[in-house]
Amino acid sequence: MVAYLFGEVAKNFYLIHNPAEWIDCVTRSQRGDTSFAIHPEALPARQALESTLPWEQDAEGPARLALWLKHTAATPFDFNAGLDDASLTADAPPEFHQLKGGSFFRGLALIDLAEAMLKRAFGAPAVAVRVNAAGQGDYFQVHVDRTAADPEDVKTFLRHAFYHRFGLTPAPEFVEIHAGGGAVGVPLPGTGALPGLAQALRSP
Questions:
Q1: What is the pLDDT along the chain (204 residues), one digit of tens a residue?
Q2: How would you class 28 by CB atoms within 10 Å of its CB: exposed for 0-12, middle for 13-18, buried for 19 or more?
Q3: Backbone angles phi and psi of 69, in degrees to 5
Q4: pTM, rounded to two decimals
């Protein structure tokens, strides 16, 4: 728990100073809720992901997910990776925002697979997944770099490769976040700029 919380603080402080690395930071943050390590390169190409594959067609629901975990050689996430005494007491300390372990909430394998599918289809720098609701998996965010992928294309992919494959019918299908709403990212050069931001928000 301590490693998870410490790592999250380090990642957030790093992100404040490196907002252009948003996708990478969100990806690393998701390691805090990872259940299975699934390598995107172990998955088939996008076209195959958007169709039913022969080896999965006789299974559905959890049984189909189990087949995917087996087919991709998924392994339980090593939440202790990089947290051993030797790593933490070395002469050169680790970069804490890049801690490999520190998973605490034991997330859902289904969302781990969704993340791997998205990164396989659009490339690791283009998309990131983050679980919400304190790791309970009630819903998950999909962060998209609009310069690398079209959000509408990402939604189309999710419908075919994820929702349809596992019989999911969320309502609403997607929750849209719009600039000017309650969740807006504002890149700042540092925490010293916060008073100026607060003043600007108070202005008419």
A1: 788 888 889 999 999 889 899 999 999 999 888 999 999 999 999 999 999 999 999 999 999 999 999 999 999 999 888 888 998 888 988 888 998 888 777 678 999 999 999 999 999 999 999 987 554 556 789 999 999 999 999 999 999 999 999 999 988 899 887 655 555 566 777 788 888 888 888 887
A2: buried
A3: -65, -40
A4: 0.83
